[in-house]
Design a protein that fits this description.
Length: 156
């Protein structure tokens, strides 16, 4: 009988400890500039990790999303490569895969975080939450697909 309250208590502690870590990351990322080396704001692998994703075995880059996102933390990480390597990253991060396909170009969920012209009809699309980080993932249809991962935290 005492195990359930202890489990809730430890989960609450983990979430409590996770929030300050994300807050510190937000402050760190906001304070970094392109001249900082190493800079978390320019480290796609580290940003993916902090957003709850594994880093791919491909080169990542941090790209600009639409201006004025208004959240305290909103990086967009992109990478591309051979389909087999992109699929391996998808399997690691989405065990059931990404089956949802965009039914039109520039769907609102993608445009809000990635801007216009990034997501096209037929691209695979996933969105959700790795508490407290929200995300949108778009996987292109190219022979060497491009993946865009937008992450943000509503916590200010």
């Amino acid at each position: 009988m005492t195990s359930a309250p202890n489990r809730r208590s430890s989960m609450g502690r983990r979430r409590f400890l996770h929030l300050p870590a994300v807050g510190a990351l937000c402050l760190l990322a906001a304070s970094c500039t392109h001249s900082d080396v190493p800079s978390i704001a320019d480290d796609g692998d580290m940003l993916l990790s902090e957003g709850g994703f594994t880093a791919p075995d491909l080169e990542t880059r941090v790209v600009d999303g639409p201006a004025g996102g208004g959240s305290s933390w909103d990086p967009v990480v992109a990478f591309s490569g051979p389909a087999a390597e992109v699929e391996a990253w998808i399997r690691e991060n989405f065990p059931s895969g990404i089956e949802s396909r965009a039914y039109e170009d520039d769907m609102q969920v993608a445009v809000e975080r990635l801007g216009e012209g990034v997501q096209m009809k037929g691209d695979r699309l996933a969105h959700g939450v790795h508490d407290p980080i929200w995300f949108v993932v778009v996987v292109g249809q190219e022979e060497e697909p491009t993946v865009h991962v937008a992450m943000w935290s509503p916590v200010r």
